[in-house]
Amino acid sequence: MMKAITLLSGGLDSTLCTVLALRDMEVILALTVDYGQKARTREVESAGRIAAFYNIPHRVVEAGFLRTFASGLTRAERSTRSSREVWVPNRNGLFINIAACYAEEMGAEAVLVGFNREEAVDFPDNSPDFVSAVNRSLSYSTRNQVRVISYTMEMDKTEMLREAIRLGIPLHYTWSCYEDGPSPCGVCASCRLLAKARENLDLRATDEHRPGTQLKP
After folding, report:
1. What is the signed CA dihedral for 164, 166, 170, 172, rounded to 10 degrees?
2. Which of 45, 74, 90, 105 is deepest in the core (most CB within 10 A)?
3. Which family does it belong to (predicted)?
4. For the purposes of burial, counting CB atoms within 10 Å of the CB of 216, is it exposed (0-12), middle (13-18) or buried (19 or more)?
5. Which CATH class is domain 3-157?
């Protein structure tokens, strides 16, 4: 069975990708990157709980130098309401290469990423073309030719939320908000995409499937 490392932020996308992968491969490590993002405390907590729920070892890797770049994800004074405001230069490329290092060292053939077609419109490093280009690069830079796989790349948020509910994923463990706090902010770009997905699935009247509402002890 193929082995994989998953890049797990604790959000819906990476969580669903990880769970879908478990049908086909052994996920031997979940990596969460702390790059100084405002939501890092909640992301690390959520990723740890999800990894534990699915019996996957979890590790946090630091890339704090990324906080020096002017992004709404890392700067308190900057907004997270649009894709332009939350761009971090080469973030996904860096994360994938970090995970590829662990993958080769641990004998894994794949790196899992929770990309989706909705965000690929604004983020070229979420796109199929990006994955193809990265895989060509990794074929040279890893001896076992590690490759990137995304089980969610052809989905939008509504389809992902529907599938996560169908699979019984503990959405109350997830954190998809770009901000920190006791509950999701509701106004950042990520929260608004999830709110639209909930509305499309007619989940407005219940908190049962609302990500991040109540983290269990």
Report:
1. 70
2. 74
3. Belongs to the QueC family.
4. exposed
5. alpha beta
Q: What is the pLDDT of residues 145-195, one digit of tens each?
A: 999 999 999 999 999 999 999 999 999 999 999 999 999 999 999 999 999
Binding-site annotation, residues for Zn(2+):
177, 185, 188, 191
Q: How far apart are CA 190 and CA 185, in angstroms?
A: 10
What residue ranges do the domains of the chain occupy? 3-157
pLDDT band at 212 (very low <50, low <70, confident <90, very high): low
pTM of the model: 0.93
Predicted local confidence at residue 204, as pLDDT:
61
Question: Could you write out the DSSP letters of every residue in 95-122?
Answer: HHHHHHHHHHHHT--EEE----HHHHTT
Distance, CA of 190 to CA of 79 (rounded, Å): 12
Separation of alpha carbons 208 and 109, rounded Å: 36
pLDDT digit string (tens) for 17-76? 999 999 999 999 999 999 999 999 999 999 999 999 999 999 999 999 999 998 999 998
CA diameter of the chain: 51
Task: Decide if pLDDT at 12 tops 90.
Answer: yes
Which tokens in the block code for residue 140?
Answer: 């040279």
List binding-site positions for ATP. Answer: 8-18
Nearest Cα to 165, choosing from 194, 141, 131, 192?
194
